[in-house]
Design goal:
transcription, Cro/C1-type_HTH, 434 Repressor (Amino-terminal Domain), DNA-binding, transcription regulation, HTH-type_reg/antitoxin
Amino acid sequence: MAEQMNIADELLTSMEQAVGIAEGTVKPGRIWTPPEINVADIRKRTGLSQVRFAERYGFSAAAVRDWEQKRRTPEKAARTLLMLIDKEPQAVERVLVGV
């Protein structure tokens, strides 16, 4: 039977691994590479203008414009929301109706 670690030991082990990753001596278990997304295509599929799209989903109009013109890349949280808008628009709408 494998010996169980207590929470303090687990945290210490995790912290040691984090330091090793930061120092480059340990490889991370996984690395999330965000997929390429085309904000203009996603927005166009919604039928909304840049301004209306930004208002609807809580982005700034300037950010939407910059993403579409490839001057900026959406941060992880924005990218996740954009992927949801693209793949599951009804789910996003259900959530926003309650807001």
